[in-house]
Amino acid sequence: MVDTDLDRKTCSHFRVNAAGVLSDALGQKGKFDTGARAVAVRAKDAWTVGVAVPWAGMKAAPPLAAKRMGLFLSRDYQIKAGTDGAVTGTHGYQFPL
Which of 13, 17, 29, 94 could cysteine-pair with 86, CB 3.0–4.6 Å? Predict the structure, then answer.
């Protein structure tokens, strides 16, 4: 998630899987096409992802040099069929087990 206002309320949410499939959303408004693009590279025991997100797609102006923003990264993984390996933290954010 990218919190361009650093208020923990307005954020852009991006999810990418190991195949490079991207899902994006603005805040709590559900699926929204921000124009972001993702690519994933798989190795034998790992994978890496790169994401390019246009500022306009996040409804944000490019930041000034001193602007602070929030960035939250997590990794969800499957523990068993039908479950998710992320847990909700005290502020409603997810953190990995």
Answer: 94
